[in-house]
Specification:
Number of strands: 8
CATH superfamily of the largest domain: P-loop containing nucleotide triphosphate hydrolases
CATH architecture of the largest domain: 3-Layer(aba) Sandwich
Number of domains: 2
Helix content: 40-55%
Number of helices: 12
Largest sheet: 8 strands, mixed
Length: 329
């Protein structure tokens, strides 16, 4: 995994809700810390990173500086389409074509057209010579991809659209994007999962899709929110004994004795609840590690990220995740 940040494009995807944006942000922070000029790309009307970094009033369709060495952008397909058309046919003809009802119908109806526009913009961000003359290039572009199925559709879009437009500048551009995605020296693929059966199964489906359509493998899998295995076998036996304690009964009628035994009964309830909670956390952690073992049996490079015990992740939490990733990348 030492070369994961050395590519031009890093595609991050996985099942919805597993923390892809958190991991993408952490990788961006890590890249910036290592002296790279990096940008995290969000898609699908998502623009969460500026808010995470405390930036308001930004334009989601433009590149926003988050801190030294790190930018973000949320791709607006209409804006990206206009930029692309202007490079193909000049400023005036690009605007005319973008406003054409015929062309709008075509982009809506053609399979993969919207996805291709987003992928073309991502390709443009990886280039040293950008569409806008004064725009600087990036050392690393991190795609915070949508959930697995939609992400695969985006990645296949150059092939899908290329089957329609076989010749001409659009076909040529689709081929450039495809070459970027298929080249192991340029692009890495990272799956984010959690230690659940469904998330791991979706990761396996992702790698099968990459192999079938792009001839690529996952470079690594990050398992997010991993719980530690805290107890030894001997400690678990003790916890089981605590859970099996008989309830305390009040045998004396004096007020002092009744109060004392009522307290003991309350303590017993607390001990039972704590023992049940400890056992539940242990069982969940064991199940997570069994799911991680499923991935390792497929010879994936697997990195676990510890569970963060907080109501909502904030920037300091993401920085700690970046530090953890940095010890393995």
């Amino acid at each position: 995994m030492t070369s994961l940040l050395e590519r031009k494009l890093l595609v991050v995807t996985g099942k919805g809700g597993v923390g892809k944006t958190t991991i993408a942000a952490g990788l961006g922070l890590l890249a910036a810390e290592r002296g790279l000029r990096a940008i995290v790309v969000e898609v699908g009307d998502q623009a969460r990173l500026p808010e995470l970094f405390g930036i308001s009033g930004h334009d989601p369709g433009l590149e926003t500086k988050l801190q030294d060495g790190l930018w973000s952008i949320s791709i607006d397909p209409d804006r990206a389409l206009l930029e692309w058309l202007q490079t193909l046919g000049g400023r005036v003809s690009g605007r005319v074509l973008a406003s054409s009802s015929t062309f709008q119908y075509f982009t809506a109806a053609a399979p993969g057209a919207k996805e291709l526009v987003s992928m073309v913009k991502i390709w443009e961000l990886t280039q040293g010579e950008r569409w806008r003359r004064r725009a600087a290039g990036y050392d690393l572009v991190i795609l915070d991809g949508p959930a697995t199925g939609h992400a695969l559709g985006m990645l296949y879009s150059p092939q899908t659209f290329g089957a329609i437009a076989r010749v001409g500048p659009i076909a040529g551009q689709a081929q450039k994007v495809r070459a970027l995605l298929e080249n192991p020296a340029s692009t890495s693929y990272l799956a984010v999962a959690q230690g659940t059966e469904m998330a791991v199964t979706e990761t396996l489906e992702l790698t099968e899709g990459l192999q079938r359509h792009l001839g690529r493998e996952l470079d690594a899998v990050i398992v997010n929110s991993v719980l530690p295995q805290r107890f030894t076998s001997a400690e678990l036996r003790e916890i089981s004994q605590l859970n099996g304690r008989e309830p305390v009964t009040v045998k004396h009628r004096s007020s002092g004795s009744a109060k004392r035994h009522a307290g003991e009964a309350g303590d017993d309830t607390v001990v039972r609840s704590a023992a049940l909670a400890a056992r539940a956390v242990h069982d969940r952690a064991r199940f997570q590690h069994n799911q991680v073992a499923r991935l390792r049996r497929r010879h994936f490079e697997v990195l676990g990220v510890p569970f963060v015990f907080t109501a909502a992740l904030e920037l300091p939490d993401v920085r700690r995740i970046a530090e953890h990733l940095g010890r393995s990348l």
